[in-house]
Amino acid sequence: MILTVILTILMLMIITVPHEFGHLITAKIFHIKVNEFAIGMGPLLASKDRGETKYSLRAIPIGGFCAMEAENEESDEEGAFNNKPAWQRLIVLASGAAVNVLVALILMIIITIYVGVPTNTLDKVVSGSPAAMSGLVAGDRITSIDGKESSSWLDTVTTISKNTDGKAMKVVVERDGKSRAYTITPTKDKDGRLVIGIVSRASHNVFVCVGQGVKVTWNLNSQMLGALRQMVHKGIDRDSVTGPVGMAGLVNKTAHTGILSYLYLVALISLNMAIINLLPFPALDGGRIIFVLIRKITGNMISTKVEGYMHLAGFAILMALFVLITWQDLSKILGH
To answer: What integer pLDDT is reported at residue 326 of this predicted model?
Structure first.
């Protein structure tokens, strides 16, 4: 229980503090006055002033904030957020989500480096398998199957699995710099998958793993956007939405399966936060971005004061949703 609480708090901090740090860095680059950058929420524990910014540590470790001058009100100060060009404000607002994506990417690269990227070089050939009986050995590198080039382990697995008729396949490998061809007939494993009895050798090359990490992060992001579009078209399934209590349950599950599962969960939620935060809803960065664009096009048709009220209303709605989702999570746990 204590470990779950610690890991949940750590996850929230990994997700929110870098997000706010993204706002801080870009605000500083554009000489926007930042009144306070806080780690944690609630009562102040300690603080230190550096220049015009107070850097503080607060009692409740569930996030943080970057308070810029005149985010929701007018100000005559040159360094106030509302007095900066629209393009600078847009970059500052989008930077938090961008850092969340970066956090997810870094975590995915760490996971990939540890696990490795499967290659077409064989690490093991299962004794008594079709591959072993045909003559394949560890160290062989598969180059083609049935005349089709196989440049990755995914190509190899996909080609074998598509041989639904279970016909003999011509597998060409490279061994000691020479090509060798073997005829192999796949068999089905206990799960009904077509296999020939080979195990891939994983590459831990940093450059290969970085490339794979980028690819995995991009695919996850695409899947999340697809799920969001589905929610818009078909409505929100209550069971698919979770809050801090539900996240703690997920953390508890990953804590029992290892650090890699935990890091993967943090990466997923960090990506999720980036997407949710950019939704065009008041109080979220996406909502603020929409107002910047509207005011750039229409001038002062919407005043800073009115915008501030709309963000306040949006924040109230988000808090109500937070309470509702938390209650739903607790109901699931209690079996109601």
So the answer is: 66
